[in-house]
């Protein structure tokens, strides 16, 4: 089945270049293009794409605002920030809003395509420089063990498998449960650990484990 993708990017040449390369792939298709934030805010949810490539600094608003406003009604959509900004505030505000990936625009098209497949399968793709900043941030902000104690044994098992790099489908197969059940467990894990994405959850898990 083809991965449906929407692109929100006000730089028309880059937007069209992304569309061309994505549509050339056998396993993905661009279902919508938006060149400004307001248009995306009004119409993005009606397309229900699997993945959104979201520019942060649109001319009329921040991409982060769009995610914050649409996240609840687009619960099954994964957002990847694709931007030229690397400052900490924008990175963490994006992740808090619910973005599952963060790529720098200088990345190769191969990296962008693999990131789309990765996030679709439950991954959290990031450019290397971004991943280092995120890890450094969470090393400075160590959590309390009481959050971890709230997890059920099954939730701890699933979090452990996530930390090993397993995708939702692999976890579902290993535990003989559906992908939807895995997603529900992951949602409970995020809520109980007070995190909004897989990177934060795994960092907390690694801290508890140590």
Automatic annotation (TrEMBL):
Tell me where in this chain the HTH luxR-type domain is found. Answer: 144-209
Query: Which CDD domains does this entry report, sorted A to Z?
Result: LuxR_C_like (cd06170), REC_NarL-like (cd17535)
Pfam families, sorted:
GerE, Response_reg
What InterPro entries has UniProt attached to this entry?
CheY-like_superfamily (IPR011006), NreC/VraR/RcsB-like_REC (IPR058245), Sig_transdc_resp-reg_C-effctor (IPR016032), Sig_transdc_resp-reg_receiver (IPR001789), Tscrpt_reg_LuxR_C (IPR000792), WalR-like (IPR039420)
Domain of life of the native organism? Bacteria
Q: Which residues get modified to 4-aspartylphosphate?
A: 55
**Matching SUPFAM superfamilies:** C-terminal effector domain of the bipartite response regulators, CheY-like
Q: Which residues form a coiled coil?
A: none
Q: Which UniProt keywords apply?
A: DNA-binding, Phosphoprotein
In the record, biological process GO terms are: phosphorelay signal transduction system; regulation of DNA-templated transcription
Offer an example of a GO molecular function term for this protein: DNA binding
* Stretches assigned to the Response regulatory domain: 4-120
Q: Which PANTHER family match?
A: TWO-COMPONENT RESPONSE REGULATOR
Q: What is this protein called?
A: Response regulator transcription factor
